[in-house]
Structure formats: C-alpha cells, structure tokens
C-alpha cells in the first residue's frame, strides 16, 4: 500500500500539495456507519480501528517534508 501511496503523491503535484497542506494533523481513514466497517485500514466506524491507511499517509507526508521518500521507498521494497 505504501508504494502505491508514494506513486500517487510523488507523481501528482496537486495531490502532494493537498497532503502537505494538512500540516501536522492526524489523518484518519473514516469508515463511517453505513460504509465499509474496515477495522484494519480505517477507523472501523468506532474510532477503534487500526487506521493503517491514515498512518501510512502521515508517514509519507513526513518523508516528503524531510525529502526522505527514496529511503522510505527502499525500505518498502525490502519487504516485498
């Protein structure tokens, strides 16, 4: 998933700008009621999910700011 996010946010400047505009806000993949009750990638509609997607996007945001995207991508590829 992280490799897909790296591709999205490094190849599309508009997406990168929106991501960076979030500052240091905590990002949550909201899987609200009536939608996919995903407790792994999202908040599970109860705020008790793992929110792995939100955490991955925040990790990428940090890497973009610190100009460390190559290091993050290399780390991901080691686990393929």
From TrEMBL:
Residues 1-65 form the NADAR domain. Pfam families: NADAR (PF08719). This is NADAR domain-containing protein. Gene3D superfamilies: YbiA-like (1.10.357.40). Signal peptide: none annotated. InterPro entries: NADAR (IPR012816), YbiA-like_sf (IPR037238). It comes from marine sediment metagenome.
